[in-house]
Amino acid sequence: AAAAATTPAKPEKPFFGFYIAKEDIDGWTYLRLVRAGREQAGAYEAAEAARRADMLARASGFSEVLRAMRDSGKPAVGHNCMFDIAYILASFATGPTALPTRWADYKALCAAWFRGGIYDTKHLARALLPDLLPDTSLGAVFGALTQEGPALEGARALASELSQHLGMPVPVPRVVHAPGFTKYVDVAAGGAAHEAGYDAYMTGAAFACLAPLAHAAVVRAERGGSAADGAAAAGAAAAGEGAGAAPLSSASAMDVDDSEGPKPDQAAPGTTAPNGAGSAASLGSADWDAVAHYEPLDFVKRYVGRLNLSRSDMAYAALWGSDPPVTRDNVLHVWLDAPGGNGGGAGSTPRVMDVIRRLQAAGAPGRPKVTVLPLAGPLSLGGVLVEVETGCPPPEVLQAALQRAAAEGGGGYGGGGPRSAGPSPLPSPLTSPGGASTGSQAGAPPTDPATASAAPSYSGPVWRVQSYAAYSDA
């Protein structure tokens, strides 16, 4: 029985006294039969296999780097890197398929490829140190934290407070170059920006400095201060005025908020600092030995996967855990209803500049931000979404003012007339969060502030203004 269970040996490949060689001549590929012995043919086949493996490795390119990063579990650090991450994954991680169309699937893809987590230095600077770092461009952040000046003094004051809180020195890292690597030594901050190596150097240096400052800013905020207090605090400490200062938060610097951490089926990013974490930056201080027992990533683990979003009302995009809550009480839906309409159908789209000018004339402060809605898809409403500043009049007041302006000076269509949409998928009437109706009933309403305020002779389109916060989850 044991003999019967033994796997039979694979028969030896037959050898016919030659091997087949490929030759490329003048753009044509030829097959040539070469007479050879078994050993010669075996050596040729081994050399060909090695050549094909080398070609495959060369063709893989950066994919090999991305795989090495994934397998190492080391964190990735970028600056304003939302698009960069998507582009890297689309180019090297998805194969012939496109990026996922669902946000949850995209987050899972990021967790699979960036097992050590992703940190965005622009988000850290904007969210935690807006007073200390008003300019969050990469060159400005790097220069502020590595060159002498008010920002660096404030950073040192923050680090000093954190040192008192932890009971051990936590200086701001001073990044130096290894012997023989002098290309960037005398380059002014941002002087070689957009050169890949230099941008990576600035990003890494900024992150090394931001890591301890991130938690220091949090605990200072908990006691009612701000990062702008840094330089003043440093001067007060030097003058001996800091003895009676309020203590920092009693929460440990190593505490992290796990409520938005990775899902159970995802590797926990950033839980282990890279090997030799202390070698990434030279502190220029004898205090390093006292600091080396904590892991710098412990200060920023709560911010893992939070990427900066430009031109968005979301504070950040969360690649791990739950997305930040967004309140859109300051967003309006503005559209043009058909003459005599009651607001229950889909609207037409007015010209963007008409919307801006007329809302400003109606009392909307600042310059409203306008986004044209598509005529197809989940939000096939027509019209525009408008983000207004605090202090804007309520929708019903704006609607009446817009309609009066339309009656006096035209409907506000653009170019060749309005764009019409199909039936609206969202309910009407719509109500504001406080419960007051800001739209029209499906039937004839008792009072329509838009039509009631228009001149009797006006027969053009009806302007409608609705609070976007009144919409359902759709």
Strand order of the largest sheet: 8-9-7-10
Which sequence of SSEs, written as H and E, runs from N to C?
HEEHHEHHEHHHHHHEEEHEEHHE
Poorly predicted residue ranges = 227-293, 411-456
Q: How many whole angstroms does the radius of gyration measure? A: 32 Å
What structural category do the secondary elements indicate? alpha+beta
Could you say how many structural domains there are in total?
A: 3
What kind of sheet is the major sheet?
Answer: 4 strands, antiparallel
Helix content: 25-40%
Please describe what this structure looks like:
This protein is α+β, with helices and mostly antiparallel strands. The chain has three domains: 13-60, no CATH class; 118-241 and 248-318, no CATH class; 331-470, no CATH class. The chain contains 14 helices and ten strands. The chain has helices spanning 2-5, 38-60, 62-72, 82-92, 103-113, 121-128, 138-146, 150-166, 196-222, 230-238, 288-291, 352-361, 395-409, 449-453; strands at residues 18-25, 28-35, 76-78, 118-120, 306-307, 317-318, 331-337, 369-372, 384-387, 462-467. It has a four-stranded antiparallel sheet. It has a two-stranded antiparallel sheet with strand order 1-2. The protein has a two-stranded parallel sheet with strand order 3-4. A hairpin with a 2-residue loop joins β1 and β2 (28-35). α7 packs across α9 (196-222) and α8 (150-166) packs across α10. The chain starts with a helix and ends in a 7-residue tail after the last strand. Residues 227-293 and 411-456 have low confidence and may be disordered. Residues 248-280, 407-458 are annotated as: Disordered. Residues 408-419 have a biased composition (Gly residues). Belongs to the CAF1 family. Residues 267-280, 431-458 have a biased composition (Low complexity). InterPro entries: CAF1_poly(A)_ribonucleases, RNase_CAF1, RNaseH-like_sf, RNaseH_sf.
